[in-house]
Structure formats: structure tokens, C-alpha cells
């Protein structure tokens, strides 16, 4: 069923199923529930892996005239944007992030640069570049401004990744501009190009970003304006610049037509901000609508809401059999994540596997690996956040399939939806999905890719490739750090605080403290918050972090 913009009734849309019968497409996108704004693009593309993203970011920075705004979870000043043969494009010029931005400001007196980074928890201090506030603000041009944003709810992180150039071009997705992220689509076991800041080269790394131009850039620019003001940076206005040289070279074209923008943000009391869980609703609605298959590649899988949605769909009476495929890292990067996130992830995935067996659905979890010099597997770290349903729905963004990403952290996703199977949007989504699957599997050539295109037996096809072990695809071991060392098994924890859905401090606590803001207990809460999240910001209390931009629809508007 397809919900026409502004309509309250469901209208069947004709399509063709795998057996040739007429089918109906269920509209997933729902204004005000699972997306905030929906706008057309002039052009849009998908950038797979950091080589393609960093190259296009470099080109956009070089062309900027008035403004460059960047926000993210993490930054590093000396990340090299061009590497290998791509360096020829720079003609010996600067290719490191901060020196490049500084150079552009010095060359162009009209250019202003704003960088907004999450004011990270002390738990991450040893993994971050030190003294960034001084490095970014005191060693560069005065028109380059850097701020830490500590306005997130207690125990939450600002995880949105966004770049807007001149108000006319935007990048968003899973990628930050920081160390240990660069890779190309070949993902060799070792590469000298994967070297940052004098470190030894890191391992294979996979991620996905989107790039777009046109009306859809405006709400993204306004989101940055609100975030900057809320952090205490003051009011800025990112007016679009009239340019005829805006272009990019994407890995693949994004689907044509309008793109929907969805967000997550946890509830805060001071300053007041209601929670926004559009991405959570987006994932749940997409799973409920699935008729043939669900493809997910993500950094984590520990969301109870996504687990429940998959179980509900698998057990739904009278619905067709699904094929559900996940591509995940072999295990989380850091030991603390392996302990806190990895255990919950493995428990949920094992349970889903059992439900799929009981109900007759196809279900498989994979990793991707290259052979090292000693013949051992070197797994690619999956950092992307992508979901495809039935080749009629695609979402790409920053949100992990975890409780905190869908309920507490700030997140940002873009989505496209076809109106009927086989239309131009559906074909573009299929090309993207097949290309990503082929990258993980190590498949190439028309005959090898044909089973992925047809999508009639995807799990069977991928299982065969993974079990053979001759290419890149591997069955995911679904094991935890405790499984790997039986001596640690008795220490395996039952519950974790690292992946909450809601803020640790709820409204009732704040109401209890309202009349005693200067009391000892209230002061202790503030100190605890600063220790966990960082120093409080000096943002005006009336400023809302989420701008009220109407959801843009074809032929009309609707409230956010």
C-alpha cells in the first residue's frame, strides 16, 4: 500500500511479484513518525569507503566560497584526504584536513569554517587527539572556528556526521574525518596507504556516505545552525551560494526523487528538548513492511526494538517467508565494547537464528575478510549503517542498530523509497545493494552477480560463498570475548549500562531537584554529568536543538 502525500487513506500501488503476479508496495515513510523532512535533490550519490568520500570532500573544500560546516563524533587535524594515485590531483598542495581548511581561509577572505565535535566522555580521552580546542582555534585563521558540543543528554553522544558546503552541497552517513578510517573497496589485508599520524597501518575498514545537492541541503544546513547555537556558538546563517560548479563523482548514483531525513535525539530537561526517535520508527516500520528480504550492514546489533520487530515479522501469520542478512564486524573494536556490546549482540543474534529456524525464514550473519600473508583471515571492520528492504527502500546514515543510537544519541539518516517494484528508484537501490554485497563477498562479473540481482535465494547464495571460504565472505562466528576464553565465562555480565535507550537521569529526578538547584545532591549530579559527558555548554536555555522545519512532500508540506 502507498500512502499518498497528505492523504489519510491507503491506496494500492500495482507492481509485479517474483512470480509475475500483481503486488502492492507498502509505504514505509510516514511524515512526523519516521522522518522529519522530505525534499528533492538536484543530484545525489553514494560514496563507498573513505577513499571515495575523502576525495570528494577534498574537492568540495577546494571549491568552497563562503562556508564550510562540519559536525561529527570525532575529528583529527592531520587526516590525509588524498592518498596514493589520488595525490596527483593536489599538485603538491596541502591535503591534510586542518591545514587545508586553514589554507582555504587564508586564500579566501570570504570563507568561514565551523567545526562542531562531540565533547566526548573521559573514557575516550586516550583515544582522541589532545588539546583540539587550542589546536583548531589558536593555530589557524580567525575565520576557522571549532567547538566541542556537550549539550547531549547525560550518557549520550552526539553521533551525527554532516558536512555542508556553501549551503548547496551536503555529505552525511557513517564516516567521520579521523584517524584509522581510510580504505578503498579492495580492502586488502595490509595497505601502506592506511596509515595516519605516524601510526602503523590499520586494518581493512568499510563505511558508506551520501552526497547530495538541491533543496534537501537546506534542512541539513538548518540542523547544523541549530546544533551550533545550542552548543553556545551563537547564531549563524548558512545562506546558499549561487554556484554553477557544484559537482561530484560518486561511487554509485543514489536513487532519484525525494530523500527523507530522519533523526534521533534523547530527551533533555535543561535546556528542554523532547526526545526524537524517528530512525527507530523508520527501522521498525521498514521491517514490518518487508515481503522478500532485509539486508543490513552495521557496526553493531544490540537494539531490542529491532530484535522485537524482526521476531514479530517472522512470526506474523499469513506473511511470506523472508530472507534476512546482516553483515557485521567480527567483533567490536575496543575491549570495553566487546564486553558491553558484543555479549548483548551475540545473544540477540543467536535468538533470531532460532526464531528463523522455527518459522522457516532464511537468516544469516556474515563477516568479510582478506587472507593475510600467513593465510589467516584479516576481517574488514564494518562501520557502515545501511538497510535495504525488498529493493524498494534504502536508508543510509549514522545510526547503529543499538539501543542508544535509536533512542539516546544524536543520529542522522537519509532514506529513499520506491513507489513500485522495478521503477527507477527500485533499480537504483538494487544496484547499490548488489554492489555492497559483491564488495563483502568478493564477487565480480555478470555471471557471479546474477544470483544477487535476482534476490530469490540470497541467503542460500551467500551461505554457499561463505562456507567455501575461497573469496571474502565468512559466516559470522557469533562468539563473544568470553566464548573465546572459557576461563572468563563465569565473569560474563548479565546487563549493561553502556547501551541504554533513555537518559540515565529521568524527568522525575530533575523535578525533585528543581527547587534545590544549589543543593549538595544537585551539585553532585552536575559534577557527575560533567565527568561522564564533559563540561556543560553556555547555550541559551530557550534554544531548541532541533529546528522546526516542515516535512517537505511532493505538492505540499506537513508538520515535523
TrEMBL record:
PROSITE patterns: PLD (PS50035)
Keyword list, A-Z: Hydrolase, Lipid metabolism, Repeat
Source organism superkingdom: Bacteria
Family annotation (SUPFAM superfamilies): Phospholipase D/nuclease
Alphabetical list of InterPro entries matching this protein: PLD-like_dom, PLipase_D/transphosphatidylase, PLipase_D_fam
Keyword Protein transport recorded: no
One protein family per Pfam: PLDc_2
Domain PLD phosphodiesterase residues, every copy: 154-181, 378-405
Keyword hit for Hydrolase: yes
Protein name from the UniProt record: Phospholipase
Organism: Corallococcus soli
Amino acid at each position: 500500500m502507498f500512502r499518498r502525500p497528505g492523504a489519510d487513506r491507503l491506496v494500492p500501488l500495482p507492481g509485479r511479484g517474483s512470480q509475475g503476479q500483481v503486488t502492492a508496495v507498502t509505504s514505509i515513510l510516514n511524515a512526523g513518525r519516521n522522518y522529519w523532512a522530505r525534499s528533492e535533490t538536484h543530484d545525489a550519490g553514494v560514496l563507498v569507503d573513505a577513499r571515495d568520500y575523502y576525495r570528494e570532500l577534498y574537492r568540495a573544500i577546494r571549491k568552497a566560497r563562503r562556508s564550510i560546516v562540519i559536525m561529527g563524533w570525532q575529528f583529527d587535524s592531520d587526516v590525509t584526504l588524498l592518498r596514493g594515485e589520488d595525490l596527483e590531483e593536489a599538485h603538491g598542495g596541502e591535503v591534510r584536513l586542518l591545514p587545508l581548511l586553514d589554507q582555504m581561509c587564508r586564500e579566501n577572505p570570504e570563507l568561514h569554517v565551523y567545526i562542531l565535535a562531540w565533547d566526548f566522555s573521559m573514557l575516550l580521552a586516550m583515544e582522541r587527539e589532545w588539546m583540539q580546542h587550542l589546536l583548531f582555534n589558536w593555530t589557524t585563521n580567525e575565520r576557522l572556528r571549532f567547538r566541542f558540543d556537550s549539550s547531549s543528554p547525560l550518557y549520550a553522544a552526539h553521533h551525527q556526521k554532516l558536512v555542508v558546503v556553501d549551503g548547496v552541497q551536503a555529505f552525511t552517513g557513517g564516516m567521520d574525518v579521523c584517524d584509522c578510517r581510510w580504505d578503498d573497496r579492495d580492502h586488502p589485508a595490509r595497505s601502506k596507504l592506511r596509515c595516519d599520524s605516524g601510526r602503523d597501518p590499520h586494518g581493512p575498514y568499510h563505511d558508506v556516505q551520501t552526497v547530495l545537492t538541491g533543496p534537501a541541503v537546506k534542512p541539513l544546513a538548518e540542523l547544523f545552525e541549530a546544533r551550533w547555537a545550542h552548543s553556545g556558538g551563537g547564531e549563524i546563517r548558512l545562506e546558499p551560494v549561487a554556484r554553477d560548479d557544484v559537482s561530484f563523482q560518486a561511487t554509485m548514483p543514489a536513487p532519484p526523487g525525494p530523500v527523507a531525513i530522519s533523526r534521533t535525539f534523547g530527551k533533555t530537561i535543561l535546556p528542554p528538548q523532547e526526545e526524537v526517535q524517528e530512525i527507530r520508527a523508520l527501522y521498525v516500520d521498514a521491517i514490518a513492511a518487508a515481503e522478500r528480504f532485509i539486508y543490513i550492514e552495521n557496526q553493531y546489533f544490540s537494539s531490542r526494538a529491532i530484535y522485537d520487530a524482526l521476531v514479530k515479522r517472522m512470526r506474523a501469520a499469513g506473511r511470506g517467508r523472508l530472507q534476512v542478512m546482516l553483515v557485521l564486524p567480527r567483533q567490536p573494536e575496543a575491549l570495553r565494547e566487546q564486553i558491553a556490546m558484543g555479549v548483548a549482540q551475540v545473544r540477540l543474534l543467536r535468538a533470531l537464528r532460532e526464531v528463523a529456524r522455527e518459522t522457516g525464514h532464511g537468516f544469516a550473519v556474515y563477516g568479510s575478510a582478506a587472507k593475510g600473508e600467513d593465510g589467516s583471515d584479516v576481517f574488514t571492520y564494518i562501520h557502515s549503517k545501511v538497510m535495504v528492504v525488498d529493493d524498494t527502500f534504502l536508508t543510509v546514515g549514522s545510526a547503529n542498530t543499538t539501543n542508544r543510537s535509536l533512542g539516546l544519541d544524536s543520529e542522522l539518516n537519509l532514506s529513499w523509497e520506491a513507489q513500485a517494484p522495478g521503477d527507477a528508484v527500485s533499480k537504483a537501490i538494487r544496484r547499490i545493494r548488489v554492489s555492497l554485497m559483491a564488495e563483502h563477498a568478493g564477487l565480480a562479473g555478470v555471471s557471479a552477480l546474477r544470483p544477487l540481482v535476482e534476490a530469490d535465494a540470497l541467503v542460500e547464495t551467500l551461505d554457499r560463498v561463505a562456507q567455501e571460504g575461497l573469496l571474502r565472505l565468512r559466516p559470522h562466528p557469533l562468539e563473544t570475548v568470553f566464548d573465546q576464553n572459557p576461563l572468563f565465562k563465569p565473569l560474563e555480565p548479565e546487563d549493561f549500562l553502556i547501551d541504554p535507550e533513555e537518559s540515565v537521569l529521568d524527568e522525575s529526578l530533575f523535578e525533585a531537584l528543581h527547587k534545590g538547584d544549589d543543593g549538595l545532591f544537585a551539585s553532585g549530579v552536575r559534577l557527575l554529568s560533567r565527568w561522564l559527558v564533559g563540561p556543560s555548554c553556555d547555550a541559551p536555555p530557550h534554544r531548541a536543538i532541533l529546528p522546526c522545519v516542515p516535512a517537505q512532500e511532493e505538492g505540499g508540506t506537513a508538520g515535523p
